Structure prediction request, 373 residues.
Amino acid sequence: MISLIGLNRTQLSEALESAGVPSAQLKMRAQQISHWIYVRGATSFDEMLNLSKQLREQLKKEFTVALPEIVEEQVSVDGTRKWLLRFPAGGADRPAPVEVETVYIPEAERGTLCVSSQVGCSLTCTFCHTGTQKMVRNLDASEILAQVLLARHRLGDYPDAEMDPEIIAPLSGRKVSNMVMMGMGEPLFNFDHVKQALLIALDDEACGFSRRRVTLSTSGVVPGIDRTAKEIRCMLAISLHAVNDDLRDELVPINRKYNIAELLDACRRYPLAANCRRITFEYVMLKDVNDSLEEARELVRLLRGIPAKVNLIPFNPWPGSKYECSSKKQIGRFANYLMEQGFESPVRTPRGRDIFAACGQLKSATEKTIALK
Prediction:
């Protein structure tokens, strides 16, 4: 069964044409179905009341708009929510069911959804729990966007099903206001599907996210950064975590292919090409590894000339990790130095640690064999 989630209006028209919908109706029907899926959050064709019953029955035979199964939902003491989602098998690209984690972080001024792009990860960053999970496969655009739609359902962002089907849900006041590609996987190793999903997320007639509220985070896939600037033009975050190649080779092994100098050159090109106000650099604070004032000084030197913000992330422990979090005092000294040099450098408050939903802690419990058989 083919999912219509993850298709834009042109692709919906093509799908409907293949199902026998008359050519004179294709544009109108594609717009209606797109509205039902992305704006109103319909999860069955029976909800699409401005489609004829005959058409709804016709669509049921070939397509689906169902959301993934929630295997587990956890709520942290700080209000963070984590969902373990199961996507079914289907076709050569989806030979077996897979599971991924999606996290929602509520804050006073926004609600951020952390979305996964892959099942597992191939990068093996040594401080990241997800990096210990074997890479299984890429998520397709349907599976990426379904995480957003499911979260909006669970949090009450969609209008009442009994409302006039032509009413557009308000974009303001939604609980899911921000979307970050910072979940499981490296988004730029799954560029085409991530691009497809994000362009629908950014479409005012679909999910309606502002470009300033959608961020793609990468460990440093330089060619993908250049493509993102030209083809997606969202906000960018870089998982930096070290100021010299020797240490970054260990912490973020992709640095052996795209070193710090190449990565920062791509970052200098990005703001102008993508109309991006500034780039966020993520820096996990590891005790006696990367947290000295000397390294803070070198970080300032490296980032000169790049419109940048530095997010300092206290290390979030996980079973078997060899690292410890830097002390609050040392993190404060590091942050103060960056601020004195003109860089905004907030210390990220750990969220969802008690349910392993914090940065670097995501790992689906059924990594394994489920998708490798």
About this structure: The chain has two domains: 2-64, 69-371. The longest helix spans residues 141-155. The first strand starts at residue 2 and ends at 3.
